[in-house]
Amino acid sequence: MWLYLIAELSALQQVVSLLTGLNGLPAVIVECFITLVYTALGGFRVSFITDNIQGSMVLGLIIVGVVTVGVTTDIDHSLIPRSNYLEPSLLGWQLIYILPVAILTNDFFLSGFWLRTFAAKTDKDLWVGISIAVAAIIAILTLVGAGGLIAGWSGVLGDPPEPTGIEIFQLFETLPAWVVGIVLVMVISLSTAAFDSLLSAIVSTGSNDLFRNKLNIWIIRGILVVVFIPTVVIALKSPSVLQIYLISDLISASTIPVLVIGLSSKCYWWRGFEVVVGGLGGIFTIFLFGLVYYDGDATAAGKLLILEEGLYVSDWSAFGAFVAAPIGGLLWAAAAFTLRISVLWIMAKKNGTRFDAFDKPAAPDATFYTGGHTTDGVERDNFGRVDDDGVERSAVDVKGKFF
Fold this sequence. Notes:
Blueprint: H1 2-20, H2 25-72, H3 79-83, H4 90-109, H5 111-119, H6 123-153, H7 167-172, H8 177-210, H9 217-237, H10 241-261, H11 272-293, H12 298-305, H13 317-351, E1 367-369, E2 372-373, E3 379-380, E4 384-386, E5 392-394, H14 399-402
Antiparallel strand pairs: 1-4, 2-3, 4-5
C-alpha cells in the first residue's frame, strides 16, 4: 500500500507538471494534507462518501475527454503501420500471462478491497456493487487504452511513437486550455479518491495487524504523517509510475498464491510459517532466476527484483520474473511445510506423544453466516455471528477471535 501511495503522488506530480508546466510538489503536499485531515476526522466512512463524488467526476473526465479528443484530434494514418501497435509482438503475448497474474494477486494484496468487501451489508449488495464496478471499469479502461493508441497515431508520441507511461495525458496536453483545466481538476479528484482509501487502509492495518489495537489511533496517524516525508521524496524522484506498480505486483505474485491455500477449509494444516517462507522464497526465486538468466550477474539479478527495465523490454526477463515469483513461492512453501511437519513428527516420536499435525481443528463455537437464510431458518441481512448467548454480533466484532 505504501508503494501505491508513492505511485499516486508520483503520477499526480507528473500530470500537473505536464499539463501546466508548473512544479508538481505543491499539489502533492496539498493532496497529502487535505486527505489526511478529512480521513482523520471521518475515517473510512468519509472515504465512501467522497469516492461517490469523485467517481462521478471521473465519469465526467471520460465524457469530456472522449468528446473533445473525437472533435479535435486528427489521426495520421501513415503512423499506424509505423507504430506496430496492431502487430503481434513478444511483449503482447507475454502480457496475456503477466497482467492477469499481476492484477489478480495485487487485488488480494490491497487492504482497501478487503475493507470494502467487509463493509458490504449483504452478499447481494456485494454482487451488485462488483457487477456495476466491472461494467464501469471495462468501459473506462477501453476508452483510456484507446487514448494511448490515438496519442501514438496522432503524432503526440513522436515518429515512430515511443511509450512514456502517461500517453493519454500527453494527448490531453494538446487539447484546448479549458479542457486541460477540467481534466486537471478531475485527475486530482481521481488521485484523491484512491489516495484516501489507501490512507484509511494503512491506518486500519497498522492499528489492527501491527499493534493489535493497543495504540491510540492518533498515534498511528502521527506515524503516518512522519512516513509521508520519505513518501513524497521518493515519489518526486520516481522515474516511472509503472515501475512502482510492478514492484508491488512482484511482491503480491510471490505471496498471494501461498496465502490463498490457507483460505480453503480443506487445507486446515497450512500455517503462517509456510506463507512467510513461501512469500520471501518467491522473491528470492526471482533473484535466482536473474542469476541464471544473466549468466551469474548479481547486479542485473538484483535490478530484476525491482524490474528496473520495466515491461517494455525485448527479452524474457520480466516474464521470467512473474513466472518465478508464484512458482518459486509455492515450492519454498512446500519445502517449509515438509520441514515443519518433519520436525513435529520427530519431536512427537522423541517425546512419545501423539503426532497431531494433521488433526482437524475444533469447530468454532458460533454460527457464521454471510447473508440469506442460516441453519436456524432466520434470514439475515448482514455479515454477522450468533453467539452462544443468542446475541447477534457483526463480523468486525469477532474478527480477531474467529480468524
